[in-house]
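Hi V.,

You were right to ask for the full record rather than a summary. Here it is.
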Amino acid sequence: MDVPELLESASLLVPEETATENDLTVRDIWDHLVRDEWEIALGLLEELGDAGSLPLAFWEELAEAADHLRLERSAAWCHWRCSEIRNGMIRADLTLLPAAEGRRTTPISGAGVLRPMWDIGCLSPTGEHAVSIAALWVENTPTLEPGGRATVRLVPLTPSHWTHIRPDQRIIMHENRSAAGTAVVLEVHLPDTAEPTG
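Predicted structure:
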């Protein structure tokens, strides 16, 4: 499919009553599609996707359209949302250790590139702390500096490891054996297929 077809197809998956914070609806998007304003339509569809729970096909079509338009950040976000639907998502308030206290001295990318380890309270078969991997997306900023604080979205590599996670729980981020930051869980949305580990 070409870009207009992908955007039209995605827009058909949005319920008519869905609206952004600015009261934009799918009807507003059709106005932009008619005028071949594909980049604007894509951005508005992303906003509508954030306003409601939409199917995987919606985000897949937006990701493909963004790839065709060579909009890297937008494509990364849409692919990220596909991962959230497949593997679940945990939102958390993350505070990185300052450069003087931690190993990291450079900012982390906010666009889902980093896949740190997390101490989420699991134990190994020998009774030691075990870590689980989850990719990290920083909301509303392209990078997060050492010592900085931001709301992040985590996509677990193995969703079944995260079934015990609840809001207000503290989890520890690691990039090596030492802690890199601390996060407090805000929301947990795991796929229905995530089974608790024994």
